[in-house]
Amino acid sequence: MKKSRIGRREFVQGLAGSVAAVSAVPRTGYGTPIPRQTPPKIKFSVIGINHGHINGQVQAVQRGGGELVAVYAKEQDLLDAFVKRFPTVKVAKSEDEILNDKSTQLVVSAAIPEERAPIGIRVMRAGKDYMSDKPGITTLEQLAEVRKVQAATRRIYSIMYSERFENRATVRAGELVKAGAIGRVIQTVGLGPHKTNISTRPAWFFERERYGGILCDIASHQADQFLYFTGSTSAEVVASQVGNVNHPKYPGLEDFGDMMVRGNGGTGYIRVDWFTPAALPVFGDGRLTVIGTEGFLEIRKNIDISGRQGGSHLFIVDQKEMRYVDCQNVALPYGDQLVADVLNRTETAMTQAHCFLATELVLKAQKQAQKIKLSS
Amino acid sequence: MKKSRIGRREFVQGLAGSVAAVSAVPRTGYGTPIPRQTPPKIKFSVIGINHGHINGQVQAVQRGGGELVAVYAKEQDLLDAFVKRFPTVKVAKSEDEILNDKSTQLVVSAAIPEERAPIGIRVMRAGKDYMSDKPGITTLEQLAEVRKVQAATRRIYSIMYSERFENRATVRAGELVKAGAIGRVIQTVGLGPHKTNISTRPAWFFERERYGGILCDIASHQADQFLYFTGSTSAEVVASQVGNVNHPKYPGLEDFGDMMVRGNGGTGYIRVDWFTPAALPVFGDGRLTVIGTEGFLEIRKNIDISGRQGGSHLFIVDQKEMRYVDCQNVALPYGDQLVADVLNRTETAMTQAHCFLATELVLKAQKQAQKIKLSS
C-alpha cells in the first residue's frame, strides 16, 4: 500500500496522474477468490442464499482458508446460480443435513433477513459458528434470543458488515485512526444511499417484516462504523426517522431513514435511502466522514464522483498535510480473522459485544423511529 | 457559466484537464467590489464591525448599487482597518448620527452577535432597513421582539446567510433544484466545519451568551439552506446536541453541535464544529448534499479535497448522467436583490418569513440541545 505525504501542489499533480490512468470499470471492493496453496483450515457450509451478498461472504471465508462443503436453499433457481459459481459445492437435501455434519465448523447465511437469526440460533445450538449477511437480526426479540443462545453455547455469531470489512479504504482508515492519525475521534457521518433496482428485487424486499425496515437493513453498516471509529462500547439512539416518501406503489418499502447516535467514545449521524439515480455507475455513493481533534478523513467507498477511478478512496487532512491515501492494495482481513477465531475461539475479526451492539442500535432506532410524511 | 453534459469517460478527462490548470490560491467566494458606472441606487451605512464578515456584506451591497456613507463602531482599531479598506467612508461619532441620517436607507451590521438584534430593532424603528451578519439574532426572546418590530414597521430585517448567497455553486444548485434537476427534494445534509484560529479571536468568541451558542452561530447557514432547498415553509427540530468536547480551557466555547430537522418540504441534518485542522488551506471543508427523487447533488463550498482548484464545486448525478457544473462565473444575486427590495419594498433576496424561520430553527435547536460529554 502506498501512502503519499505531500503538499498541495504534489497532491494535485498526483491526482492528475491517477486520473490519466482511469478505467471505466469500477472495482466492487470484493476481491476474487485466491487459489489456495495450503490445505483448508476449516470447512464451512451455506444455508440460505436469498441475497447476492452470499458470494462475497463465501469468498471472504475462502480467502481466510475455508473450504466450502455444502449449500442448502429452498429456491432451485438460486441454487442453480450458486452451484454454477461454486461448482465443487455439494447441494444438501435439508438444513439438518448441514447442521448434523460434524466436519462443518461454520455456517454462512444470506437467507431472507427475518430468517437469519432463527437459522443462526439453530446453527449455534448444533455446536457451529455462524456468519450472517447484514441485517443479521431483524427484531429486538430475535436479538435477545440470539444473545441468550450465544452466551450459552459460546459459539460465534458474526454479521458481515461488509461496508467496513470488505472496503479497503475503510479498513485502512480504521488502522490510521487507531494509530491516532486524526487525534481523538469526535464524530462520524455515514451516508448509505442505494439504488432500488426495483424490477430485479424479490417479493421480500417490499415486505417490512421480512427485511426489518430500512434502518435495520442498511444502517447496520453505518452503526458498525460509528462504534468502530469512535471506539464506543456503549451507545444510545438520540433520534431516528423512517419513511416511504416516494414509493406509494410499495407500501412495505421504507425508502428513507436516518438516525443520530451518541456513544461513550463519540457521536454519529447515519442516513440511508433508496434514491440513488440510474446514472451512478455503482450501487450507491457511500461516504464516511470522521472528524477528530487533530484532523478529519473522508472515505468515498464505492465511487468518487470527482472522477478518480474505482472505489475505496481515502482522503485525510490533519495539522500538517492534506493527502490522498491509495488503498488499492490494502488486504481485507475479515476472512482470515474469522477463520482464525473459529479455530482459536478468539474475537479478532470483531468482538461479539460490538457485533450485537451495532445491531441493537439500529433495531432500537427502527423501533422508535418517527414516521416521515412529506407533502408531494 | 459552463455546464458539461458528458459521459463518465469525458467527465474524467475533463477533470484531468482542470487539474492541470491548478492554482495554489483558493477563491474565497467573495467577489471584489466592482467600480460603479451608474449613480448609486441607495445609500447605506454600517453600525458594528466586530466580525470580518462586514467586508463581504458591504461589498455585496456595493455590487448591488449601494453607496457606503458612514460607519459607527466603538473599537478604534477595527475602525482604522475598516477605513483603510473603504477610504471614502465617513466615521460617525455615534450610532444616533447614522440612525438620524434621513438619506441612509439601509444599515448593515457585524456587531458582536448578541448586539445585532437590538441594533436592528433601533434601525427599523428609525425607519430604515437592516442587514445583519449571521447569527442575526441570538435568543428566542430577541427573535420575538424583532418579529414584532418588523411587523409594525414593515422594514426589512435581512440576515446574510453567506454560505448560500455568496457561494456560486450554492446559488447555481438552487437554480437547478428549483428547475427540477433532481426531482422533488427529500433531504439535505449540511456540514459546516470551521477552524478555531484561537489566537486571533476576540473575547466574545468564547462567551456563550455573546455569540449565542454554536448552533445559533454557525448552523444558521445550514438551516437557511435546508429550508431553501427543501422549499419548506414550516419546520421543527427533531433532535439537537451541543458540547465542548475538546477545549477545556475555554468553557464558554461550544466546539461541536448537530441537529436533525424536518420541514413540510423535506428533512435535514446539520453538523457544525470547530475542529478543522491547520493543513486545510481554507476555513473549513463545508459541504451540502441534497438528495431528490430523481438524483442528488453535492456542493464542496470552499475546497475540493480531491484536488480541483478553488471553491464553489457542484456535482450532480441524475437518471441520465453524472456531471460537474462549473460555477466560477455564476453571478451572486443577493446584493442586487436586497438593494431592489429596499427600493421596491419587495422580498426577492429572501422572504422575511424564511429569514426568521431559519434563525428560529437554530435558536430552538440551541435551547433544547442535549449536552454532549465524551470520555477523554
Summarize the structure.
2 copies of one chain form a homodimer. With 376 residues, the first copy, chain A, is of the alpha/beta class.
Structure keywords:
homodimer; Dihydrodipicolinate Reductase, domain 2; 24% strand; 2 domains; Rossmann fold; disordered N terminus; six-stranded parallel beta sheet; nine-stranded mixed beta sheet; 15 strands
Task: Summarize the structure in words.
2 copies of one chain form a homodimer. In chain A, helix 2 (53-63) packs across helix 12, helix 5 (113-125) packs parallel to helix 6 and helix 11 packs across helix 13 (352-368). A 9-stranded mixed β-sheet of chain A has the order 14-13-12-11-7-10-9-8-15, covered by helices on one side. A 6-stranded parallel β-sheet of chain A has the order 3-2-1-4-5-6, with helices on both faces. By secondary structure, chain A is an alpha/beta fold. Chain A folds into 2 domains: 2-161, Rossmann fold (3-Layer(aba) Sandwich); 164-332 and 364-371, Dihydrodipicolinate Reductase, domain 2, CATH 3.30.360.10. Chain A has 13 helices and 15 strands. The N and C termini of chain A lie far apart (49 Å). The radius of gyration of chain A is 20 Å and the shape is globular. Chains A and B meet through helix 1, strand 7, strand 8, strand 9 and strand 10 of A and helix 1, strand 7, strand 8, strand 9 and strand 10 of B.
Q: What is the assembly state of the chains in this entry?
A: homodimer
Shape of chain A: globular
Provide the gyration radius of chain A in Å.
Answer: 20 Å
CATH class of the largest domain in chain A: Alpha Beta
Determine the CATH superfamily of the largest domain in chain A.
Answer: Dihydrodipicolinate Reductase, domain 2
Q: List how many beta strands of chain A DSSP finds.
A: 15
Chains forming the largest contact = A-B, 69 and 70 residues
